[in-house]
Amino acid sequence: MITQNVDGLHLQAGSSDVIELHGNIWHNLCANCGRPAAEAELDAGTPPACPHCRGLIRPGVVWFGEALPAPAWTRAAEVLETADIFFCIGTSSLVEPAASLPRYARSCGRTVIQINPEATSHDEIAQYVLRGRSGEVMPALLQAAWPAWPA
């Protein structure tokens, strides 16, 4: 599971091996030294300071203009190189470099399935384009593939 979402809901829902390309709002890190900062480590100051270098603590998300974390990006590329199918679900396909993932999947010979209510630039490269909201299309797709899937 590769996601651009920062809300941690995939993990809360029980998904395993989630690659959070843009980080997780529930994790904190030091803006100076980059170390993760557990809530218990933080002082009561506002804004909180890093217990290691006294730098400012910030949410563990990628802000506009920042690079994606290299480990997440590398892992996403590795997953695409071995996946059978790449589902591109509910994205505008505008934010790079994440928007390049479907193109990379296609260049690796993977089947790309686009699920979105609106057309995007990925409609051209996807072998299958399913129009609709993910919360409606995915259950219908699973039901069609596995009739025993709970409706």
From TrEMBL:
Zn(2+) binds at C30, C33, C50, C53. It comes from Noviherbaspirillum denitrificans. Its EC number is 2.3.1.286. Residues 1-151 form the Deacetylase sirtuin-type domain. It holds the Pfam family SIR2. GO terms for molecular function: histone deacetylase activity, NAD-dependent; metal ion binding; NAD+ binding. PANTHER family: NAD-DEPENDENT PROTEIN DEACYLASE SIRTUIN-5, MITOCHONDRIAL-RELATED. It is an enzyme of class 2 (transferase). This is protein acetyllysine N-acetyltransferase. PROSITE patterns: SIRTUIN (PS50305). The active site is at H22 (proton acceptor). Keywords: Metal-binding, NAD, Transferase, Zinc. Transmembrane segments: none annotated.
